[in-house]
Amino acid sequence: MPNQPRYDVALLNDNETPMEFVVRVLEVFFDMSFAEACTLMFRAHEKGKAICGTYSREEAQKKVADILAFADEHKYPLRCILEEAD
Question: Nearest 5°: CA angle at 25, between 22 and 29?
Fold first, then answer.
């Protein structure tokens, strides 16, 4: 279906989730290299939020749910959101 809205998946900074864990999330869930993941992790750390990818609504919702479940499983308060892309 043409012109379906796209959604950004973003990680939000917090002061409890270790930077190493955020890098791992970016590598695993967004297939980023270590260098790419570090760059995005620092963007979230410095700016409060980093957009990790843009997807269909269904794909974005699944990414967010999977990441939140992974963070919860490891007992970290990492927050991941989706928002309509520009």
Answer: 150
Reported as type and span, the H/E element at residue 34 is helix 34-47
Which domains are delineated in the chain? 7-84 (3.30.1390.10)
Tell me if residue 78 falls in helix, strand or coil.
Answer: coil
Residue reference for tokens 């989706």: 82
pTM for this model (two decimals)? 0.92
Q: Residues 19-76: pLDDT tens digits?
A: 999 999 999 999 999 999 999 999 999 999 999 999 999 999 999 999 999 999 999 9
Cβ neighbors of 2 (< 8 A, separation 6 or more) are none
